[in-house]
Amino acid sequence: MREMEGEQLLMRIFIGDRDRWQHRGLSDVLVELFKKEGFAGATVLHGTQGFGAHSIIHKDSILRLSEDLPVVIEVVDREEKINAILPRLDEMIDGGLITLEKVRVIRYRSHRA
Amino acid sequence: MLVMTLLGIALAGALGTLCRYAMTGWMQRWLGPAFPWGTLSVNLAGCLLLGLLLELARQTGWVPAEFRTIAGVGFLGGFTTFSTFGVETFRAIESGDWMSGGLNILLNVVGGLALVAVGIGVARWLVELRSSL
Asked: What is d(CA A47, CA A7) in angstroms, rounded to the nearest whole number?
């Protein structure tokens, strides 16, 4: 298992749960991509409400507004690793938002055996 | 004839569903996401139209029996939605928003009954208007 500590980069990708890449759910494809590229980890968070560039509010409590709920994918890794994947993401993500911020990793390890 | 009626119900149901999808979208965008306006609007409009349709069918010969079934069961069955009303009310109450949940029940159930009455009233008015001409 690789180690990671100290200053790293946190990438957040904001998309909708209806977003697709080559007929597959975009969040699934992205997580598989990060795994394949050897990233330290990725977490997919499902939002219950939100709006994006179109300013249309999506929320899960009203059926007609629950069609494209927010999904956030968080990845923490080295700056160069994240910068290297950005062109691929730009190609795959049609509408959405990507943010980067510096974070300090204080613990990264798997469960103790 | 039965096959044609079944086919008509299926096609009208599909059309009603598409109309519901469009109308709920318009109403939610127009009135905002704070309340399930879309579901309420299709349910109220459906009650009004079904009241009108069935009363006209009962009192006059203007509505053929097949059309009544196709429009009432097919189109309005697809257009209105009791299940979505149930889920959205449950979600509001579950999240502690008793006001929205209660208002939704009141507007859908009482408002729906009231609009059935309005639809029947309009139908009777149309019949009287026709007979006085």
From this structure: 27
Taking contacts as CB-CB distances below 8 angstroms, the residues of chain B near A55 are none
Query: Could you tell me if A47 lies within 8 Å of chain B, comparing CB atoms?
Result: no
Nearest residue in A to B29, CA atom: A56
In a domain, A110, yes or no: no
Q: Is the pTM of this model over 0.95?
A: no
Number of compact structural domains in chain A:
1
Asked if the C-beta of A50 comes within 8 angstroms of chain B's C-beta atoms, the answer is no
Which residues of chain B are within 8 Å of residue A64 when distances are taken between CB atoms? 21, 24-25, 28, 36, 38-39
| Residue B123 near residue B56, CB atoms below 8 Å | yes
Q: Which domain holds residue A41?
A: 6-105
pLDDT recorded at residue A85: 97
Sequence ranges of the domains in chain B = 2-132
Confirm whether A51 is domain-assigned: yes
Nearest CA to A45 among A30, A63, A64? A30
Is the pLDDT confidence value at B38 over 90?
A: yes
CB count within 10 Å of CB A82 equals 20
**Would you state the pLDDT for residue A56?**
87
Q: If you average pLDDT over residues A36-47, what whole number do you get? A: 96
What CATH number corresponds to the domain at position A13? 3.30.70.120
**pLDDT reported for residue A1:** 67
Q: Is the ipTM of this complex over 0.85?
A: no
Nearest by CB to residue A64, choosing from B25, B32, B92, is B25
Q: Are A84 and A8 in contact (CB under 8 A)?
A: no
**A61 Cβ under 8 Å from any chain B Cβ:** yes
